[in-house]
Structure formats: C-alpha cells, structure tokens
Amino acid sequence: MLEPIWEADFHPCNYGFRPGRRAHDAVAEVRYFTSKSYEWIVEGDITACFDEISHPALMARVRLRIADRRVLALVKAFLKAGMTG
User: Keywords for this entry (predicted)?
Assistant: First the structure.
C-alpha cells in the first residue's frame, strides 16, 4: 500500500526490502561495476538501525505524503508491533 508512494524516490542500486529485487540482482550489479574498473563498492546492512528510528519523526514524514487517518493508524500499529521474521 505504501510502496508505490515511495518507490520512485529510492536509488536504483538499492536492493534491500524492495519488490522484484533479490540478492542475486545486487551481486550481478557488483560484478558489472567491477568489470568497469570501479575501485569501490559499498555494502551496508541497516537491519539493526530500525530499532533506533524515532517513531514520531518517522510518522511526521509519513504524514507529509499520507492524509488518510486509517492508513496512518495502520503504519503506527506496524511500528509499535516491531519487525519480526
């Protein structure tokens, strides 16, 4: 429900938590760039950072693009429940 709103903002070489993108796609892109003589490849794992994100600050950003109170309540409930899996 929220993905179409933000997907266009994401950088094309970002593969984490995105529909239609797999780890194999990221590896293929790394191989492509290394074949073009790039000297640096940066990899980051931000999984643990989600525990540190301010929920009020995040909700303020979400409210800039979402007006529907029901959707906002759902996002807030997801944040309160935390990430599982």
Answer: Nucleotidyltransferase, RNA-directed DNA polymerase, Transferase
Count of structural domains within the chain: 2
pLDDT higher than 90, residue 76: yes
Checking if the pLDDT of 29 tops 70, the result is yes
Q: Identify which of 47, 56, 46 has the alpha carbon closest to the alpha carbon of residue 79.
A: 56
Q: Is 67 exposed, middle or buried (0-12, 13-18, 19+ CB in 10 A)?
A: exposed
- pTM, two decimals, is 0.66
Q: What three-state secondary structure class fits 39?
A: coil
Q: Are 37 and 58 in the same domain? A: no
